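A sample follows:
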Amino acid sequence: MFYIVLGASVGLISDTYGYTSSNNSMFGAVVIFCGLSGSIIHAVILDRGKKYKHQLIFIGNSNMTNV
């Protein structure tokens, strides 16, 4: 459900600024790539460090500053 809403939002915002549908596809690919690479990086750090509470705090603070 989240990806449907995200895709619709990106489409509406990019149409406002005159981007084409191929640009929307590129935006979607970048979102997917960044999400997967971020998940892998956090998983590796978490697996090696075993600091679950610190990782949770870091992710929470990162999300709050990006909103």
Observations:
- Helices lie at 2-16, 21-49, 52-66.
- The mean pLDDT is 80.
- The two ends are 19 Å apart (CA to CA).
- The chain has three helices and no strands.
